[in-house]
Structure formats: structure tokens, C-alpha cells
Specification:
Helix content: 25-40%
Pfam families: SnoaL_2
Number of domains: 1
Shape: globular
Protein name: Nuclear transport factor 2 family protein
CATH class: Alpha Beta
Strand content: 35-45%
CATH topology: Nuclear Transport Factor 2, Chain: A
Distance between the termini: 47 Å
Strand order of the largest sheet: 2-1-6-5-4-3
Number of helices: 5
Oligomer: single chain
Order of helices and strands: HHEHEHEEEEH
CATH architecture: Roll
Largest sheet: 6 strands, mixed
Radius of gyration: 15 Å
Length: about 140
Amino acid sequence: MTSEQNRTLVKQAWRSFSTRDKDLIAMFFTKDAEWLAPPGNATAVALGGSHHIVGRDAIVHFLTVDFPRLFVADVTVDFRGFHAAGDVVVVEETMQATLANGNAYRNDYCFVFELRDGLIHRVREYMDTANGHRMVFGDS
């Protein structure tokens, strides 16, 4: 696939995440897909999960079941860029939401999507982990 086709695929995948439609979301990932975030990030800690999610089914479960348990309302994403080069698409964004504890959440993210055979094979997620911990757990 071309860089532009890969960029379009990642945009479509991202739109599918908000639907919480398990079958739709699953269509975008390889069976052996991985999602890697920084160890100890607030989302993984708060949900009692791992920073390294392995397998399409586990990723779909995170996006449709776990994510909405922490980010309970008013989830919005302000995309600042979708940059594609070959089979790699980089997404820059700011996410806002209301957390399960009632706190407001706002954090900047960078996602690196690696595609294989027209599907997402690996996602590397980067964010301000200290900021995330302050919003999820309070100042410490």
C-alpha cells in the first residue's frame, strides 16, 4: 500500500475506535498485533492492565471495554497530524475526557502505527506520563 493509503487506513481505524464496535475495530489489526505504551503509565496502572497489549482480541477488548471504564465521558480528540512514510503512520493528538474519578483529563499523545499487509501490526504510544498520573491519581 502507498503512504497515502496507509494514512487513510489509520484515520479510518481511529474513527472506528470511538464506535466501540468490536468487529469493526478488529478488522484493522493483524491477529498478532501489539500495542505498546510507556511502562507504569496511568491508564495501565488505573485499569490494572499491562503497558504492552498483545493480540488483536486483547487490543479490541482494551479499546471497547477497558478504555471506557477510565475515560467515562466527553472524550474528544484534537488531531494535529497524520504523517505517513511507507508502512509507518505517525499520529499527533491531544485527548480530553472526564475520568471515572470525576477529574478532567487532557494530555498530548504521539502514536506510531506500523502496518503489515494493509493492517495495523504494532502501535507505539507516547504521552506525558507525569501529567497523566497527576490527573488520574492526583498530585503525589
